[in-house]
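As a warm-up, study this chain.
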Amino acid sequence: MQTEQVMAELATYHDEMVAIRHDIHRHPETCYEEHRTSALVCERLAEWGIEAHNGLGGTGVVAVIRGKVPGNRAVGLRADMDALNMDEANGFAHRSTIPGKFHGCGHDGHTTMLLAAARYLSQHNDFAGTVHCIFQPAEEGGAGALAMIRDGLFDRFPCDAVYSLHNKPGLPVGSFITRPGPQLACADEWTVTIRGTGGHAGAPDKATDATIALAHFILGVQSIISRNVPALDAAVLSIGVIRAGSSHNVLPSEITVNGTARCHDPRVRDLLETRLGEVAHAAAAMSGCTAELDYARGYPPLVNAPEQTDVAIAAAVAVSGADKVDGMSPPINAADDFAYFALERPGCNVMLGNGDGPEWKNNHRPDYDFNDAIIPYGAAYWISVVEQELGLSPKG
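Now compare it with the structure written out below.
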């Protein structure tokens, strides 16, 4: 890949891509509401003469770019489009104009990078096969990837391999990390409901006190990771919400505890569900209470296929050099519904550095912002993946 030539051409329309990113950021749309965003994507694709299909999975868009060299192989490049349900704390000109909605994870940048790559590839289509640029809705908890699959994504737009790219604050601009095998965790939600009789707080001997069961349960949850999960397997159980009580002098008759489970191995996932139930029932029984577990499995672990990981590493090295690419980075306990795509077709997800300075805050913080300086790196990476998979001449 002639990286300098590719980056030079991407630079000629960098300002335009930044304007697109800022436009999307100012008008954030959350799960399955991405009507304006998908319309913007389709308008730009049409402007550049790229075939586009909208409405997949609700608001998803697929752009089709066919190579002019004979070839039957097809690859999918995926970017998510949705925002988060949270307020933005930034004060810059392109801050969110919609209260309670905010591109706090950088999906506005992901969409922009794939648009830039699609524009380049449509003008340099000297490759053998087909590129499907997948603009996906509802990654933030809405399983938009699964919705697109159920809507016939891979039937209408066959892919031999699929790839995903996500920004990562804390990594230098232009650096990439990935790994073969499990990379991101499952994202399961669980709720334990503890029930006692309740009663007067001044006469606890005449009640079954659910708060004691709660205390034993919380401590017991911590022992699941340290004493049941194999030491070399990563797993997390965290409690995010506890609801109980109405007055300081009333023992609550019901307590709900809501949390998340994260791991990378299906066997560990089964173990966490089983042990949560066992610990809840045992903790409740000690205090004469009862317990009920509701365990909802969310996104599965994201597992990168070895061959596609090799392709992704080679593509990233071509863009940034071997010293900027870590192909054996540790697993991460975040989750991404690209995992559903990777269950259907062999695939790989990479992380691209969003900047390692103090100004680049972590995803999902109210003061987060996507770094416009990485747009060319992300677009060049997509172009490099196409070269690795289908062959590509920058002079095409």
